[in-house]
């Protein structure tokens, strides 16, 4: 078995006799032969949307079983990869910005300001409300 | 900030309901007891819509032991609006984004919009309701003539990135900086890329909040383009990871002062 495993590693081709126990108890003179190969197929890069290309690879395991003159082939996808995909965070934003003079743009700034409330995700508001509550309590004591 | 809180007229009350702090800030002459009905409303909403309470209608719907047709009118309204918004946002606002029914993204704004109606019917003209950072305003922050809302800076905790000024307006912000990545792109089930936060302003908070969530989920590739197509008085401010800020032309922005 070790020999076969080594062969599989070097060539991705594995030739096995069918399960030994079964073979030993079968009187058949025709030995089934199983050949397993795994190949990677690379898809054509395609426009995933208007901002970029996407390419998919699949790995297919092909199992060929031969019993006498009867050959059975089974194929199964055992892996999918996406080596090329649209880079939405850089390229597409750039295109967006080029395409959208309609939107006003500026650099992100940090300000402090005279405001009554803060709109944001929850914990920020919670901090704001805590602070507000403390202020209200102080106001009640005063 | 605190100086305003101390000297402002009216009353402010904060309670922790639906897993977040809810602040009701009324600047008119008001007896604090008059705010009880508003907070009772939020507690009732929580009982009906909580995904954490096994007995809530939403939990029973999610488990399949309650049919939509047998749910209360409020629940049916919210689910119908979720579906409208899913279609409007190209599937990016999705009450099933996490795999099972969770309309919380709409319920918060919807509940606040109802609370604002209750306050108005009670005769108040100047108030703000802030539910976990999503805000509905009315009138002004007396003695100031308008309300000024800071938009949380996504990278610097104690600073704002812009200020929104208005009278009767809703302000919703969706971002990943507070509780980690709690918004996922329903199409990929992954956190979106390239956007730090999206703020949407407009007439009602439920819609503004859903739009902000959807635009944030779209990521940098689609959010700016999509926000530029908003109608009905909705405007957006998108902060990109590249530290660029994009505003739609009508965004109600105030100069800092």
Element-level helix/strand string of chain B: HEEHHHHEEEEEEHHEEE
Average pLDDT value of chain A? 59
Kindly state the percentage of residues in helix of chain A. 25-40%
Low-confidence stretches of chain A: 1-27, 85-99, 123-142
Sheet having the most strands of chain B: 8 strands, antiparallel
Number of helices of chain A: 4
Approximate shape of chain B: globular
Describe the biggest sheet of chain A?
5 strands, antiparallel
User: Order of strands across the widest beta sheet of chain B?
Assistant: 1-2-3-4-7-8-9-10
Termini gap of chain A: 87 Å
Give the structural class of chain B.
alpha+beta
Description:
The complex is a heterodimer of chains A (142) and B (257). Chain A is α+β, with helices and mostly antiparallel strands. Chain A has 4 helices and 7 strands. Chain B has a single domain (2-254), classed as T-fold (Roll), CATH 3.10.520. In chain B, the strands form 2 sheets. Chain B has an 8-stranded antiparallel β-sheet. A 3-stranded antiparallel β-sheet of chain B has the order 5-6-11, with no helix packed on it. In chain B, helix 2 packs antiparallel against helix 5 (104-121). Chain B is globular and about 50 Å long. The chains are: A alpha+beta (142), B alpha+beta (257). Chains A and B meet through helix 3, strand 6, strand 7 and helix 4 of A and helix 1, strand 2, strand 5, strand 6 and strand 7 of B. Strand 6 of chain A pairs antiparallel with strand 10 of chain B.
């Amino acid at each position: 078995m070790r020999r076969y495993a080594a062969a599989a590693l070097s060539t991705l081709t594995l030739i096995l006799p069918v399960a030994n126990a079964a073979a030993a108890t079968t009187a058949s003179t025709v030995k089934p032969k199983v050949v397993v190969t795994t190949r990677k197929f690379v898809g054509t890069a395609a426009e995933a949307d208007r901002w970029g290309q996407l390419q998919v690879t699949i790995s297919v395991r092909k199992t060929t079983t031969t019993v006498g003159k009867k050959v059975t082939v089974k194929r199964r996808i055992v892996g999918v990869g996406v080596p090329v995909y649209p880079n939405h965070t850089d390229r597409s934003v750039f295109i967006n910005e080029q395409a959208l003079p309609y939107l006003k743009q500026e650099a992100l700034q940090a300000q402090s300001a005279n405001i009554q409330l803060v709109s944001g995700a929850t914990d920020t508001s919670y901090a704001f409300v805590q602070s507000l509550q403390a202020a209200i309590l102080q106001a009640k004591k005063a | 900030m605190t100086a305003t809180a101390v000297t402002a007229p009216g009353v402010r009350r904060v309670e922790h309901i639906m897993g977040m702090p809810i602040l009701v800030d009324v600047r008119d002459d008001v007896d604090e007891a008059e705010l009880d009905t508003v907070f009772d409303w939020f507690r009732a909403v929580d009982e009906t819509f909580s995904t954490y309470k096994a007995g809530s209608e939403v939990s029973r719907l999610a488990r399949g032991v309650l049919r939509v047709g047998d749910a209360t009118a409020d629940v049916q309204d919210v689910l119908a609006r979720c579906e409208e918004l899913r279609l409007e946002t190209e599937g990016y606002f999705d009450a099933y984004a996490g795999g099972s029914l969770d309309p919380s993204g709409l319920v918060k704004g919807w509940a606040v919009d109802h609370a604002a109606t209750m306050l108005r019917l009670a005769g108040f003209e100047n108030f703000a309701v802030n539910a976990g950072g999503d805000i509905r305003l009315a009138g002004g922050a007396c003695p100031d003539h308008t309300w000024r809302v800071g938009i949380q800076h996504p990278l610097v905790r104690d600073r704002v990135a812009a200020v929104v000024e208005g009278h009767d307006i809703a302000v919703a912000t969706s971002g990943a900086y507070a509780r980690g990545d709690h918004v996922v792109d329903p199409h990929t089930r992954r956190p979106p890329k390239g956007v730090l936060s999206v703020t949407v302003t407009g007439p009602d908070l439920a819609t503004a909040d859903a739009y902000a969530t959807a635009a944030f989920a779209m990521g940098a590739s689609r959010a700016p383009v999509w926000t530029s197509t908003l109608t009905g008085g909705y405007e957006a401010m998108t902060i990109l990871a590249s530290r660029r800020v994009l505003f739609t032309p009508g965004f109600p922005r105030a100069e800092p002062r």
